[in-house]
Amino acid sequence: MLRDQINDDLKTAMKAGDKRRVSTLRMVNSTLKNADIEARGAGREPLADADVLAQFQKMIKQRQESLDIYEKAGRTELATQEREEIAIIFAYLPQQMDEHEVAHVVTELLKELGVQGMKDMGRAMTALKERFAGKMDFAKAGAVVKRLLTGESRNLP
Fold this sequence. Notes:
Layout: H1 2-16, H2 19-41, H3 49-73, H4 76-90, H5 99-113, H6 121-132, H7 138-149
């Protein structure tokens, strides 16, 4: 479903002559195709929508890292390009949870799973990724899980 939307948007961008959107959506299609090939090579099915969302988040993170580097180096034209690509990819993600929602979801999940300590952090993160792919920043969620598991819950939003 997401792939169809991307392809439709690519055609629209091509007709409109929107070079940035065309190049970004082509890059997205290429990344997804490579991930499908990698999955097939490992004996798995092509990417499902949840996996596609995870790929989008990975692409955004890569561009954010490049953006930071370009800004520090004073390369404003490249920084602008990265910002535009981030905005285009971000539009395909569902509404992201805010910090309070993440803290609430993580707290409830830890109770549900009966997580005891840091040794269960991997299990908690796996469950979060399965249930909330594309809906939260897992780096921030990981920090919340860690604070809750180490007893620092007073610092949560």
